[in-house]
Amino acid sequence: MAEYPQVGHDLLEGRRIVIGVSGGIAAYKTCGLVSALKKRGAEVRVVMTENATRFVTPLTFSVLTGAAVEYDMWAERAEDALTHISLQEFAEALLVCPATANIMGKVANGIADDLLTAGIMAASCPVGFAPAMNCEMWHKPAVQDNVAKLRERGCWIVGPCYGALASGAVGEGRLVGSQQLIACLERMLLEQQPPGIDLRGRKVLITGGPTREYMDPVRFLSNASSGKMGHALAEQAAAAGAEVTLISGASQQIAEALGFAGEFETVEVASAAEMLAAVQDNIAGVDVFIAAAAVVDYTFAEIAEQKIKKTAERLTVELGRTRDTVKWVAASPQRPQMVVGFAAESQDVVSNAAAKLADKKLDLIVANSIVEPGSGFGADTNRVSILGPDDFRADLPLMSKWAVAGAVLDEVARRLP
Ligand SMILES: Cc1cc2nc3c(=O)[nH]c(=O)nc-3n(C[C@H](O)[C@H](O)[C@H](O)COP(=O)(O)O)c2cc1C
Tens digits of per-residue pLDDT, 338-368? Predict the structure, then answer.
């Protein structure tokens, strides 16, 4: 596992990030990225190509970053302005977002004819590209060759993903969502070089999201889990080459709205019993099982067929325990090589998680606080500790759920025989 130097802090706090903007229609989405990075406490500077200024004005980025935005290599500058040389001193990570076919072609071939490309050429920090373009353009051999060249030279390439494109077509070429962009920056800052995690040939089964226990056709007992962690794990495991199935409880719409779009199969379930049944149906041949779902522990002893009328002043219902999916998997004759649990706790996070790890005979447990700001249910970020039975303990800083998923899968891949 990589070293995580800033335990307890936000991984992005105070980090100096340069966002390069080139002239693609997705440039407007970069405003959201810059704003999200600022909210996480990063120091962000924006450098644009001249063509990018036709899509979004430098003023917009200047207001969002609170700093001057540079795009003209030949302009006379204030002392603290970024030049192609001072960018090298400032930047701890540089991400071009969106990255046009043109800018990737230029950088791959050593062309440095504007402020951004010259800055990239002079940069000594990790450099990433988030390509976004029409799918016909993306699949052109010239573009693919340039991307391969950049990757070979250690650049980070994040996306593009499949989806609706500005042209009206649907295909590969869409800018990935801001969670993935931020997670890429986080991993760049941690200097976890690509190609990253390798799960090729592995079968991974993941549960995510909340379950629902219905009392009648309308009312249910549930929790505030958004399903983001489960979807991030599924997306990352698929990106690492695994064959992935996600058993998702009531979170598919949220995930779709957030733009999770990996190559994985999703099985939608509602109750804990349905989740367990879906896991039992899909467990054969699985190498890694990760239980990230927030399964409701109690279910109604009786489920009314019709909506219960609100006539009585008080209503007493009886609850019984639901069955524990991860415990069933860990004790199953078809037990995968790695069984990973999640423990969402409101107090004594690590000791409670350690007890669960032992009780359920897990190979790893990911402990997270649901009361800490920016962590747990619904948040885009999480701060977790990963524990193993061999006294292994890694305390990770606050980072996006996508990056947490990467760290968990890193450890899983390391432990797989
Ligand atoms: C409306 C419009 C949208 C464009 N969108 C993209 C795009 O999404 N991706 C891309 O690679 N090029 C796109 N282009 C083409 C680039 O703007 C063009 O290749 C330009 O030279 C890029 O310059 P730059 O890389 O220096 O910013 C678009 C052009 C126009 C007019």
Answer: 999 999 888 888 899 999 999 999 999 999 8
**Catalytic residue (choose from 102, 109, 134, 223):** 223
Residues of the chain above pLDDT 70, percent? 91
The verdict on whether 134 is a catalytic residue reads no
CB 120 less than 6 A from any atom of ligand 1: no
What is the rounded CA–CA span in Å between residue 382 and residue 400?
Answer: 6
Residue 274 CB coordination number (10 Å): 16
**Pocket lining: 280 vs ligand 1, CB cutoff 6 Å:** no
Helices (H), 25-80: 27-39, 58-65
The answer to whether the beta carbons of residues 208 and 230 sit under 8 Å apart is: yes
> Which residue ranges form the domains of the chain, and what is each CATH number?
16-189 (3.40.50.1950), 203-415 (3.40.50.10300)
23 lines ligand 1 (CB under 6 A): yes
Please tell me the pTM assigned to this model: 0.69
Helix intervals (H) in 110-227: 115-122, 135-138, 141-152, 178-189
Query: Could you read off the pLDDT of 93-133 as tens digits, one per residue?
Result: 999 999 999 999 999 999 999 999 999 999 999 999 999 99
pLDDT at 189: 85
How far is ligand 1, taken at its centre, from the CA of residue 54, in Å? Answer: 10
